[in-house]
Amino acid sequence: MTDTRDRLLDAATDVLLRDGAQALTLDAVARQAQVSKGGLLYHFPSKQALVAGMVDRLVGHFDAALTAAGETPGAATRVYLQASVEPRNTATGAAADRATAALFAASIVDPDALRPLREVYQAWQRRLENDGIDPAVATAVRLAVDGWWLSRLVDLAPPAPGLHERVYVLLTNLIDGS
Amino acid sequence: MTDTRDRLLDAATDVLLRDGAQALTLDAVARQAQVSKGGLLYHFPSKQALVAGMVDRLVGHFDAALTAAGETPGAATRVYLQASVEPRNTATGAAADRATAALFAASIVDPDALRPLREVYQAWQRRLENDGIDPAVATAVRLAVDGWWLSRLVDLAPPAPGLHERVYVLLTNLIDGS
DNA sequence: CGGAGTGTACCGGCCAGACGGTACAGTAGC
DNA sequence: GCTACTGTACCGTCTGGCCGGTACACTCCG
């Protein structure tokens, strides 16, 4: 069963988001996943392998979203916006948080683990630059989205609900009107 | 001399930006600052105190910038944009990198150390929302800027030089035209 | 004037504990 | 008998933090 594998990956992000990066230890992850430490090391022979696994999963999601985006102008930019930021402030955005967690974990434990992510991200950026709309608009929207989930992750003054929607509309209009 | 204190703070950000979060140890910081470990611990009795010091300094800069911004419409938003992102892609943006480093260090070592920063940031966000321009525009610009320095810090597909300027112009126009 | 004492800034060795990782014997299910 | 674990004992290293010193400037008192 790859079930346990996924549970371990989930557990790692849970620990990271709940207790902070400092607390991301093999013991803590194993405990969270209700797996023995031996079991964890059976699936991920090292901590690096664990965070590499987190990044891999993230890369997979990215790739899927990238290919799933349509061909109409602004399609990719819109997908990127919607994937990270719901129109309404549902405050969950679980997928985006998971992404950030993986990013975070990697940059702490093993910056090299980010390499595959960098490549997919670069591909995504290229896709945005050729999205049938002004590349500057697409890039600005992307950066805003990145800033958005960062602000939520670190809880640095994320836009209040009312403003949240207005910013979302603004970005959407930006995409449409270019 | 508070000279040594500042040198230690600088050393901490240097180590973090150069060698990654993993390498941010008391020994490494002391070595970088050419101070003994005892000397470090004289100024900062714990690692938490060290990152708290980093955040404090950042908060100070924020406060200064906040009061220094003028009163004309969009002044604060423009300051925020210019502080983090040079019009040309000078690739340095040292101040912004320093900010990120402090943020990073805090979220790893002691998430609670971010509290004072959260408050200043919230104040800054309020200031942006009352900047004489559409609050949604101000917020969107802010988020884009946040995303910008994040992309540079983690090296996740930061906009290429040519695009960099176009995005900068786009954001500036957004501020002016609202 | 001189000696004693006080506070600041810093040195550097050391230790306890945490953490990553190994090893290995055992087991439940297919 | 193989996969997918469990459970535990253990090791070496790294790291945060403590502590006993030292150098030195300054001050207070007789």
UniProtKB/TrEMBL annotation, chains A, B:
Pfam families: TetR_C_28, TetR_N
Keywords, alphabetical: DNA-binding
DNA-binding region in chain numbering: 25-44
Residues in HTH tetR-type domain copies: 2-62
PANTHER family named in the record: HTH-TYPE TRANSCRIPTIONAL REGULATOR RUTR, TETR-FAMILY TRANSCRIPTIONAL REGULATOR
Protein's name according to its UniProt entry: TetR/AcrR family transcriptional regulator
The organism of origin for this protein: Planosporangium thailandense
